[in-house]
Amino acid sequence: MRRAVKTQKLSELAKTVRSKNAGVDLITFDVIFSDAVAYDRVKKARVLTRETVATLYGIAPERIADFVEFDPANAIKFTIYRLKPSGSPGDPDIFGAQQYAPLLDIEVPVD
Amino acid sequence: MHSLRIICPNGHLGFAPLRVESFMFGVATAPDYIAADSGSDDVGPVPLGTDTSTSPLAWQTQDLEHMLLASRRLGVPMIIGSSGDTGSNSRVDLYVQIIRDLATKHRLNPFRLGYFYSEVDKVDLLRRMRAGEIVHGLEGHVALTEAELDATERIVAMAGVHPFIDLLRQGADVIIGGRSSDSCVFAAPAIHHGFPEAQAYYMGKVLECASFCAEPYGGKETVLGEVSADDVRVTAMHPAQRCTVASVAGHAMYERSNPYFEHVAGGTLDMSDCFYEQVAEKTTRITGAKFLPAPEFRVKLEGAGKVGERYVGLVGIRDPYTIAHVDDVIGWARQQVRERFGDTGYELHYIVYGRNGVMGDLEPLKHRPGHELCILVQAVAPTAAMAEEVCMIGTRQMFYARLPDVKGSAGSVAFALDEVLRASPGYRWTVNHTLRCAHPLELFPTHLTTAGQ
Fold it and tell me: What is the pTM of this model?
């Protein structure tokens, strides 16, 4: 019998999940954890990587400009290129502030 | 001087008012400088293009008043960077005038008012380009072309510490800056007083957004930075906030693609080996910052160009069949615009809230729309009259969309307003490039005058 893998949502584990412009051509995403335990768990689970992010957002991996695991802040950070600079007519999110929502539901396996 | 202490009451001064209580706590620590950045390219290209502020004059004035009165009472300099959101020349003039008016209003003793401009003359830039200068594109943009320069309404250059230091050397008590890197507003006085560039730029980096480097989250509260020869200490002034290792390190990531590097005119702050430690309840100490001077002095340029006049319309949809076929509804309306105006010479955008309005193609749930949709229609065209008509056709024709199996045959959409509304003109970022300069001050002329009576 296959045992179901227990998971927790990223929103339950992270203290901060946010997105914001990094200049006019990039949107950067920060996932920050309260402690190294939760951070390491997510890092080791490989559920938040260049590849998983590209799949989740339906973009080519080349659109991810940067992907950094930033230990001093217990944080995982990645940045994507916009297709058009911020604030061009038709841009629905001039500040890039509401692009993080899909990250909240990422399932993280419980050890 | 063993250390230098600077308070920052606001990141992007004017965009929302500073909080007075923590500012007063900051002032009570008797800092050596009071400084804040007042700009951002986050607000999009419209303010730079139209040469306006997105921040209300009342809020700009209120914050400048708090800072000026505290600065004059303590007898310490006050520094503002990127005046009026964009740091264009008109915004510098506006802030200089506000400072003058406040000095008169409060009968302040005379003080030295320094300011510098950041706008780049298009003719001058064209001359440099024709002389062979390559204006390199950032983030994968191609080098600036004459066509893109021609399409640009206004350009500002991003100053580093140099014009601020120049004005401090001239004895300025108050500095009103044009467009400048946020961190340089704070790094300049530290460098002026002989502290190492690495520490100076790191302090600027950590102070630039005021209490965004503190926790719990709460913007517009004052923080205090202290720089010495070998460290930076940052302290939250609000009674309920603390600067912690997590909040300070977390802020190093904010609004940048890489948490380790910060580029400014003249070099790069390298935070790869930064070490953070909690040295008091509300204070975190940072060591290990490095500054790498650039081999070539290049200055970032920002420019906005006009796309056209703009009108917007709003539409609602409730019929589940129509929601499932919303792209056909939009397609019908687009076709009617094409029949009137052709394929080109205007822009027509549909933002479909309730489906993927906020995220567009990045939306993973775009195939699961809600039970009702709101659609924002935006039309941009060379004249207001044309933009209005494009928007009107693009909005109203959604009402007449011909869907084969629709039950409701009296109108495909709901209008809360049976009109289209004039919006700000559409602009786009045309310049996000760097220009080589022979001298750090060549794009940033400084001026010193007096204010007060």
Answer: 0.93
